Fold:
Amino acid sequence: MKKAEIFEFFRRLAELNPSPETELEFGNTYQLLVAVTLSAQATDVGVNKATRALFREVKTPQQMVDLGEEGLKEHIKTIGLFNTKARNVIALSQILVDRYGGEVPEDRDAMVGLPGVGRKTANVVMNCAFGAETFAVDTHIFRVGNRTGLAKGKNVLEVEKKLEKNVPQPFRVGAHHWLILHGRYICKARKPECWRCPVDDLCSFKPKSEAPKVRAAAA
Structure:
């Protein structure tokens, strides 16, 4: 995809959704970090259902430590891998208390050093909480990047590096949100809904899928 096409790609997505946001629910940066950590191999909808009651009770790392691993498990037992995630969240919360005064560090490398926090999680927090121009490549962005020709890569890091290189201003902060939402609701894995895609003419994917036929109502 050429530079002018990339600019037009994001311009159209931005026009339709000028202020894109994560669909995870949170009240502060710490809660965002926890929510994103819990979202690995889980849906945002499922995480939100589990964290609503949790986040009414827990707003700080110290409160999470006080809740304890077993208490946390009760809140998140509907989420996949909840045992491992509970252990990691308690451990990262203790580190935040001990090393960072209970605050989430505004540094990707420091975040990646926390238990259960990978590069994608850190990129989401850096972007959503601190306004950093980071590109958190999940399965949706990996698919959209490769399928459209926007940012082709054999792995998530290659796609991330292509996005860092190719995405122009003023779209860099919102780019990963637009791409996630586009992949989640239009450029779906099994059957992309090309007939209602705002950037279908810029996309290299062939063949385009057609709108499902509506059966005529019985007389």
In short: The two ends are 49 Å apart (CA to CA). Residues 3-20+135-202 form a domain with the Endonuclease Iii, domain 2 fold (CATH 1.10.1670.10). Residues 22 and 177 are 7 Å apart (CA to CA). The chain has a mean pLDDT of 93.
